[in-house]
Design a protein that fits this description.
The protein is mainly α and 320 residues long. Helix content is 73%, strand content 6%. The protein has helices at 2-60, 66-120, 125-162, 166-185, 217-243, 254-258, 270-290, 307-314; strands at residues 204-208, 211-215, 296-299, 302-305, 317-318. Strands 2-1-5 form a three-stranded antiparallel β-sheet. It has a two-stranded antiparallel ribbon with strand order 3-4. Helix 3 packs antiparallel against helix 4 (166-185), helix 4 (166-185) packs antiparallel against helix 5 (217-243) and helix 5 packs parallel to helix 7. The relative contact order is 0.08.
């Protein structure tokens, strides 16, 4: 009988020991649930209080009257209406600028194409030979002219020294040095048959002394050079006379009377070159003597006549 009692007692003790932790867990779980419910209720009350505060602030903020709202709308509408014309005007101006630029580009391209087409128009073989023969004769005459001018140049230099015009004397010597360099170039052999000047058709005409002359692009380039070279030499001569305290007298200058600097006997008549050289010289002398830039400018180390003045002097007319 004792073993049975021992076993019953042990079983009862085991049953009680198992039940105690279960109750403890249930109690702890209940406490946790209570805490969570309290926290949720606290958060809910805080959130509700915050919302009520925001609603009170919104209610306390001043509300815009219908008149104020209408005024604000009118101002916005007026601002929008004012911006639209400005934007449209700017767009129109930009479009006009682009149209003018495109028109200029088209016109320049068309003119360039016309010049190229005329340059490609070759003269007949007979006409080429006539031009070459006339050119060879001009070169021979020009060399003889340079020989004659040497004596006159020496006489003029003596006059400058006697008059104590030292600045003009220096300019005169520099001008003669440039002529000597130019004369050396005339001694080279020249290939007339491969020079495009002699087979390119005229594209311009100009009036000199009441007569019209036709020239191609190479001849026109020579005349432009004559005016520019004349302006540069005239400017230096005018400066020299001013430094010497001499009276203004461009026609008395040897460079003006000679008017051959830049001319090598090719691409045109000497008389035409001399005429346009003197046209540039008189204007350059006026600027140099008076220390101004009415007819030209100083750029990149050289004196050049203004483009508008150059066009006015030459007055080249396109052959169309």
């Amino acid at each position: 009988m004792k073993p049975v009692g021992v076993i019953s007692t042990a079983f009862l003790f085991l049953l009680l020991w198992t039940a105690v932790p279960v109750r403890a867990q249930q109690g702890q779980k209940g406490e946790n649930q209570g805490k969570s419910e309290k926290q949720d209720k606290g958060k809910g009350r805080a959130k509700q209080g915050k919302q009520q505060g925001q609603e009170q602030e919104q209610q306390a903020a001043p509300q815009a009257t219908p008149e104020q709202q209408q005024k604000s709308q009118n101002q916005q509408q007026q601002s929008s209406q004012e911006q639209q014309p400005n934007q449209q005007r700017q767009a129109q101006q930009q479009q006009q600028v682009q149209q003018r630029q495109q028109a200029n580009q088209d016109r320049q391209a068309q003119q360039k194409q016309q010049v190229q087409q005329r340059q490609l128009a070759r003269l007949s073989q007979e006409r080429q030979q006539q031009l070459i023969a006339a050119q060879q004769q001009r070169v021979t005459q020009y060399r003889q002219h340079l020989d004659q001018q040497q004596l006159l140049a020496q006489q003029y230099a003596t006059q400058l020294q006697q008059a104590n015009r030292l600045a003009n004397y220096r300019f005169h010597q520099e001008y003669l040095a440039r002529l000597r360099q130019q004369r050396l170039a005339l001694q080279r052999a020249y290939d007339y048959n491969n020079d495009p000047y002699f087979y390119t058709a005229p594209i311009y005409r100009y009036n000199r002394g009441g007569s019209y002359y036709e020239i191609n692009e190479y001849g026109a380039k020579l005349l432009r050079q004559a005016v520019n070279y004349g302006y540069a030499e005239g400017f230096r001569a005018g400066q020299a006379d001013r430094q010497d305290h001499w009276r203004s007298d461009y026609q008395n200058s040897y460079a003006y009377q000679d008017a051959n600097y830049g001319y090598d006997g090719y691409y045109g008549d000497q008389d035409a070159y001399n005429y346009y050289f003197r046209q540039g010289f008189s204007r350059g002398y006026d600027d140099g003597f008076n220390s101004r830039a009415q007819y030209g400018q100083y750029s990149n180390g050289s004196y050049t006549i203004l483009g508008a003045i150059l066009s006015q002097v030459l007055n080249l007319q396109s052959l169309r």
